[in-house]
Amino acid sequence: MIKPSEEEKGSTRRGLLKAALAVAAAIPFLGLTTRPSKAAKVSKAAVAYQDSPKGSQRCDNCRLFEPPKSCQAVQGVISPNGWCRLWGPKG
């Protein structure tokens, strides 16, 4: 049995690594991902949504709020004065 030299082993590994990186880089362009382009929104009940604020925490000062009445994470019409567990201050 002929054993490959250390130099041959390195070039084989290098070639395999290059091929793996090329395949990994091509996956998003080929549409082979299973992740949807936008995350699914959750129900109001799942995040304890309410139409009234919780102190100074209101949807219209949350990082997820999309004026005039929408949210990046919660389904349905959202009141600017509402609140849910996902509330986070605008950056």
Your description of this structure?
With 91 residues, this protein is mainly alpha-helical. The protein is built from 1 helix and 2 strands; from the N terminus they run H-E-E. The N and C termini lie far apart (64 Å). The protein has 2 domains: 1-35; 36-91, High potential iron-sulphur protein (High-Potential Iron-Sulfur Protein, Chain A). The chain has a two-stranded antiparallel ribbon. The model has no long low-confidence stretch (mean pLDDT 83).
What descriptors fit this protein?
91 residues, 2 strands, two-stranded antiparallel ribbon, 1 helix, High-Potential Iron-Sulfur Protein, Chain A, rod-shaped, mainly alpha, 4% strand
Amino-to-carboxy terminus distance: 64 Å
Strand order of the largest sheet: 1-2
Largest sheet: 2 strands, antiparallel
CATH topology of the largest domain: High-Potential Iron-Sulfur Protein, Chain A
Structural class: mainly alpha
In CATH, what is the homologous superfamily of the largest domain? High potential iron-sulphur protein
Order of helices and strands: HEE
